[in-house]
Amino acid sequence: MTWVITGGAGYIGSHVVRAMRESGRTVVVLDDLSSGHREFVEPGVALVEGSIVDPVVVRKTLGAAAGLGGLDGVIHLAGFKYAGVSVQRPIHTFEQNVTGTAVLLEGMLEAGCKNMVFSSSAACFGTPDVDLVTEATPTNPESPYGQSKLFGEWLLRDLEVSDGLRHTSLRYFNVVGSGYPDLYDTSPHNLFPKVLAAVGAGETPIVFGTDYATPDGSCVRDYVHVQDIALAHVAAAARLETGQPLERVYNLGSGDGVSVLQIMDAVARVTGRPFTPEVRERRPGDPARIVASGELARRDLDWTMRHDLDDMVASAWSAWTASRA
C-alpha cells in the first residue's frame, strides 16, 4: 500500500508520514520545503522536492508512488497555512491552496487514483456563534486562508460527482505537541512555539485579553495533540482503501477546550520555569470561545484525545529543547 503525502516534511505532515509508515504503508513525500524541513523526513522515505502547483512535479511524484507497488491514495497537507498573513497575500494563498489542489487532483485522476484525505481547517467556520461546533455548523470563513480551504472541500465534492473521487476532509483546530523528539512546530505564528521560545529565552509570554466571557477571562480554544491528528489520517486512509463509508467532513475537536491562561499555567508547571504572563489588550477579531465536537470522527476514525494538556506541553517542550541542543 503506497500513499503520496503532500506537505510531508512539515510539522503535521511529518507526523502523518511516520504514523502511516508505522501502520505498514509505504509513503512518498511531495514538499517544496518552503515551511517544511528535509530533516523531518526519515531516511528511506522518498522525497520529491517541488510544488503541487507544478503539474510536472505532481506527475513525477504520483508516478514514483505507483512504481513502488501501486498508488492507493493521496493525503494532501501541502499549502499556505497562515490565516493572518493570508489577508496580506490573498493571491499567493489561493494559488497555493486552490490552484495547487486542482493541479494535484487533475494529476490523480490522470493516474487513476481516486482516494484523497484532505487537510482542511477550522478556519472554514470563521467565528461561529455556537458553544460547540459540529460538522453541521454553517461555514463562514473570514480570511483568504479559510476561504481557500473551503474551496478545496467544494472541489473534492464536485469531483466526487463528476469522476467518482472518494474523499474526506479533516478540519483541524489548534494542533500542538510532538510525537517524536526530532519533530516540532516551527511556525512563527502558533501559540505553543511562541510561548516555549519566550520561556526558553527567559522572557515573559504574552496573553491578549483576560476580560472575555469565559471562566478565567482568557480565550478558550480546541487544542489537540499532533499524534492524535496523525492517527486520524491513518484511520481515514484505511477506510478509503477498503471502500468503507466516510463523511465528507470530520471535525477533530476535543469537545471542551482549554483557555490560554490554562496553557500558561501548564507551561510553567511542566517546564519548571514559573512565570506570570504579561497581559495585553484584546486583539481585534479574537472570539471568546471556539470548541468543536469530535463525535463523528470518534464514531468512524477512532478519534480520541489520547493526550492531556500536560502531555501536549511536555512533548512540545522536550522536542523544542532537543532541537536547540
Automatic annotation (TrEMBL):
Catalysed transformations (reactions): UDP-alpha-D-glucose = UDP-alpha-D-galactose
Highest taxon above the source species: Bacteria
Pathway where it operates: Carbohydrate metabolism; galactose metabolism
Every NAD-dependent epimerase/dehydratase domain range: 4-253
GO molecular function: UDP-glucose 4-epimerase activity
One Pfam family matching this protein: Epimerase
The keyword Cell membrane belongs to this UniProt entry's keyword annotation: no
Keyword entries, A-Z: Carbohydrate metabolism, Isomerase, NAD
Cofactor(s), names only, from the UniProt record: NAD(+)
Family label: Belongs to the NAD(P)-dependent epimerase/dehydratase family.
Name the UniProt record assigns to this protein: UDP-glucose 4-epimerase
